[in-house]
Amino acid sequence: MSPTDLRRALTAALLTLTLALAGCSSGSGDAKGKKPKKPSKSASPKVSPGPGDQTVTLDWKGEKRTYAVHAPPSYTPGQKLPLVIVMHPYPSTGTHVARLSALSAKADEENFLAVYPEGLNGGMNALVCCGSADDVGFLRTMTKSLVDTWGADPQRIYATGISNGGDMSFKLAVELSDTIAAIAPVSGGYSGRITDPASYVPKSPVSVITFIGGEDKWYPVFNAGLTIWQERLKCEEQPPAKLKQKITRTAARCADGSDVVAYRLPEMGHSWPQGKADMAEREAAVNATDLMWEFFKSHPKKTT
């Protein structure tokens, strides 16, 4: 079977299972979808940038959309700081993924902004799940506001997330490739019918670091999607490095200058390596948060 045939077969199986389970569930709650309202003109949020945590509300296409911004203690207006967009699983919240990832503490150590957008009804409209909202448009608007108002550096904007949030990272890499410098999907993947066209790839280089578990029921889909991503971007992969707990690390350089690094953890399920809350794999030999930030630091925005 060719990689394309394998991808189609796995995608069909994924979609069937997704419908049966109502999306990639995190097991942290439940939410029912509701009919989206008609689009309306969005309003600029009123904010007072400063250190610490602040929840911002944005009137976006007839919905009140919110996101929490965490600025490090050293933050002062006018600084150009890196920005990490952190997206929760389905059904869940920004508060949960903030605890799980510990990226606010990392932001305090490394002096960057972390933002936790809330999906409608507990999820983002990613590649195979959940809802029908224009979340790419919402996140573009949110990011522009963070650049204009909070001083986020437009050359150092990154995205990460777990499960539904990891899938959404790949969607942003493709559909906001003019904005995103690199992504770090955790237990998420490049899959679904939207990715069937070979043209569904970034138009501007976006580097990837990803973490997938061998005990995750979605592992075959995530692994096949990563193979397709690398084939489409003509990436040359180096031999895998072997780490503790039989973990492997692969690295590839792609024709557009982007990098792809993948950690495969054979003993991990649908989890965040060394996370701090529900959905954490606390005994993992690698720390996803530390590794993704080191990767982000070395991958500012590239242009072709």
TrEMBL record:
PROSITE patterns from the entry? Answer: PROKAR_LIPOPROTEIN
Main subcellular location of this protein, as a coarse class: secreted
Region: Disordered; residue ranges are 24-55
Residues of the signal peptide:
1-22
* Xref: InterPro entries: AB_hydrolase_fold (IPR029058), FaeB/C/D (IPR043595)
Compositional bias segments (type: Low complexity)? 41-52
**What are the BP-aspect GO terms?**
xylan catabolic process
**What positions belong to coiled-coil segments?**
none
The record's PANTHER family line, in alphabetical order, gives: FERULOYL ESTERASE C-RELATED, PTHR38050
What is the protein named? Polyhydroxybutyrate depolymerase
